[in-house]
Amino acid sequence: MQITGSMVIGQQSVFGSAGTVKAINPATNSEFEPAFGLATNDNVEQACQLAAATFDSYRETTPEQRASFLEKIADNILGLGNTLIERAHQETGLPVARLEGERGRTMNQLRLFAKVVRDGVYVSATLDSALPERVPPRPDLRLRKIGLGPVAVFGASNFPLAFSVAGGDTASALAAGCPVVVKAHSAHLGTSELVAKAIQQAANDCGLAGVFSMLIGNGRQIGQSLVAHPAIKAVGFTGSRQGGMALVRTAAARAEPIPVYAEMSSINPVFLLPDALKTKGAAIAQGFADSLTMGAGQFCTNPGMLIALDSPELQSFIEAASAALQGKPASTMLTPGIHKAYSTGVERLNQVSGVEVLAQGQAATAPCAAQANLAVCGAKDFLSNVDLHDEVFGPSSLLIRCKDLAEMQAIAEHIEGQLTATVHATAADYAIAKSLLPTLERKAGRILFNGFPTGVEVCHAMVHGGPFPSTSDSRTTSVGASAIDRFLRPVCYQEFPAELLPTSLQDANPFGIPRVVNGELTL
Ligand code: NAP
After folding, report:
1. Within a domain: residue 465?
2. Among 192, 206, 363, 430, which one is least packed by beta carbons within 10 Å?
3. What is the CATH number of the domain that holds 330?
4. What residue owns the CA closest to ligand 1's atom 14?
5. Domain CATH number, residue 148
6. Which of 91, 94, 157 to mutate to test the pocket of ligand 1 (most atoms within 8 A of CB)?
7. Residue 501: what are its φ and ψ, rounded to 5°?
8. pTM reported for the whole predicted model
9. CA quadruple 264, 286, 438, 311: dihedral positive or negative?
10. Closest atom of ligand 1 relative to the 158 alpha carbon
11. Are residues 92 and 187 in the same domain?
12. Does the C-beta of 339 come closer than 6 Å to ligand 1?
C-alpha cells in the first residue's frame, strides 16, 4: 500500500488543504517524503457528521458482525507486512523487533475485543420480571448497555501501533458500538495513514462504511475542534499532562460536557524493602536498569522512582545499578521534541539542591538519543520540593533514600496518583509491605510484587489506569477487556412489548449472552 499523505474520512481518502507537513526521522533529525495534507475545520465537520449518522446502525450490528470487523482490521494490519514496520521504524526510531512485537500486541487487542463482543458480558443484560400482584406492582424492567456515541481518539507517540490509530482506545470504542474519529499523532503520520487505510478497507468489506475516520492536523486546532464538536460523545487520549488537561477543559466547557479518558503522567514508584535488598539486591539492580532503559525509557510505566531505607545493602544496590546503567547505550527517542523535553528535564532534576547524580548511561552519539540517568536525594528533599515529583519522560529515575520506615510511608503518602506501584520484598518484609499496601491501593491502578512495571499484559484482569494525574478518571482502564466500559452507558426498558425489545433483552436470549434474571446470573 502506498503512503499518499491523505487522511481517511469514511470511505474517502482526502488530502487536506490547510497546508502540508512532513514526517521527521528522529535518528537523523531530517524530514522525509511524502507531504501530508492538513485538515480544515470542514474536514472535522464531515468526519463528525458521518460518525453521528452511522452511530445508530453501527451500534445495532450483531455481536458477530462487530467481532468479525475487529478481526478483519487485525488481518488487514498484518497484511500491510514490512511496509508498516519499516515506515514505523523510520518515523519513531523504535527497533524493528520491538515494532513487530507491538504489531502482535495490537492484533491481540483487536482479537480480545472481538471475544469480548461475542461473549456479551459487557452488555450487562439484566432482566427483572413484572410482579403484577405485588403492592405496588413492579413493572417489567430490562437493562442493557449501549455505546456512548462517536469517540475521538488521540493516539500516543510512544506506541505507534498498540496505542495509536488501531490501538486499545479505537478497538474498545468500536467494540462498544461507537464510531471513531482519530486525530493522528504527528510523530508517525505515515504509519497512521497505513493503519487507517487497513481499517477503512475492513469497514468497507464488512459493510460498515463511515464508522471510522482519521484526521491529520495540529492538536491545538484540529484536535480541539474535534473534542468541541457536538457529535463527539467521549474522548480517549494518551500523552502529556498538559495535552490531556487541555482536552479535559475543552470537554468540560462544552454546552454538553463529555468524558475524557486521558492517560497522562506517572512516575511508577518502586519500593525496595530491606530483606529483598539484602538477599537479591544485585538481581533487582540489573532488572531495574533493563526496565528503565527499555524503549529509551519511553513507557508510561517506566520505573521513574525508587524508594529504599539507607543501609549498607542499599549502597551495594546503588553500585550494582550504577554499573548496569553505565553499560546501557543511549537510544533514539521518538521525536526531537520529546528528546528536548527529556534533556531539559534531566538537566533540571540534576541541578535541584539535594540531588546527586549516581550514574549515567553511555553518552549520546545521535541527534535524538537519550542518555540514561540515575540520581538520588533524601526523603526530606523529596517531601519539600514538588519539582522532584514531575515525570521526566525517558530513561531517568530518582532514588529516594529514607532514614526510617516512617519516611518511606510519608513518601508513599506524598506521591501523586500512579499507573503502577511496585514492592520488592521477601517474606521477611511482608509486615512492611502490608503497612504500605493501603496507601499504595489509594495511589495506584496496578500494584506489582517483585517485578518491574514495564510490560502491560493485554488480558481481562489488567488495569492500566489510576488516580490523577496518571489518568483523568481513576474508575477506568485503557488496557484490557474492561477498557470497553469507558464507552458504554446503561439504558433501562420499562414494560416494553416483545416486538420492540433489543435482541439482547428478548426472552429467548437469541445472542446467548450471560444475563442476570431476577437477581440470578444465567449463563
Ligand atoms: P502530547 O504533546 O500530549 O500530544 C499527544 C496528542 O495530543 C497529539 O496528537 C497532539 O497533537 C495532541 N495535543 C497536544 N496538546 C494538545 C492540545 N492542547 N489540544 C489538543 N490536542 C493536543 O504528547 P506527545 O507528543 O506524545 O509527547 C510529549 C510528552 O508527553 C512527552 O515528552 C511525555 O512527557 C508525555 N508522554 C507521556 C506518555 C505517558 O504514557 N505517560 C506517553 C507519551 C508522551 P500534535 O500531534 O499536533 O502534537
Report:
1. no
2. 363
3. 3.40.309.10
4. 243
5. 3.40.605.10
6. 157
7. -70, 145
8. 0.96
9. negative
10. 43
11. yes
12. no
Backbone dihedral angles phi then psi of residue 158, each to the nearest 5 degrees: -85, -10
Of all protein residues, the one whose alpha carbon is nearest to atom 38 of ligand 1 is 239
Please tell me the predicted confidence (pLDDT) of residue 1: 86
C-alpha cell at 42: 470542514
Contact 124, 143 (CB under 8 A): yes
The finding on whether 36 has its CB within 6 A of some atom of ligand 1 is no
146, 123 Cβ separation under 8 angstroms:
no
Q: Are residues 382 and 289 in the same domain?
A: yes
Do 276 and 241 lie in one domain? The reply is no
* Distance from the alpha carbon of residue 315 to the mean position of ligand 1, in angstroms: 37
Residue 330 pLDDT exceeds 90: yes
Cβ neighbours, 10 Å, residue 297: 27
Ligand 1: atom nearest CA of 341 is: 32
**Does pLDDT of 480 surpass 90?**
yes
Instruction: Looking at the structure, tell me whether residues 230 and 340 fall in a common domain.
Output: no
Q: Which domain holds residue 89?
A: 7-264+474-487
% of the chain at pLDDT higher than 90: 99
Same domain, 245 and 303: no
Q: Report the pLDDT averaged over residues 232-255.
A: 98
Question: Using a 6 Å cutoff on CB, does residue 300 contact ligand 1?
Answer: yes
pLDDT of residue 383: 96
- State whether the beta carbon of 393 lies less than 6 angstroms from ligand 1: yes
Is residue 88 within 8 Å of residue 188, measured between CB atoms? yes
Average pLDDT rounded to a whole number, residues 95-112: 97
Does residue 152 line the site of ligand 1, with CB under 6 A?
Answer: no
Domain count, the chain: 2
Distance 338 CA to ligand 1 centre (A): 9
Share the mean pLDDT of the chain: 97
- Cell numbers for 302, please give them: 517506566
Residues 246 and 391 in one domain: no
Which residue has the CA at smallest separation from atom 12 of ligand 1?
219
Contacts of 498 (CB under 8 A, 6+ apart): 506, 507
Q: Does 144 lie in the same domain as 275? A: no
In sequence order, what are the beta bridge partners of 196?
none
Model confidence pLDDT, tens digit, residues 397-441: 999 999 999 999 999 999 999 999 999 999 999 999 999 999 999
Q: Is the CB of 240 under 6 A from ligand 1?
A: yes
Same domain, 220 and 333: no
**Is 308 inside a domain boundary?**
yes
pLDDT of 90: 97
Tell whether the model's pLDDT for residue 219 goes beyond 90.
Answer: no
Give the pLDDT of residue 226: 98
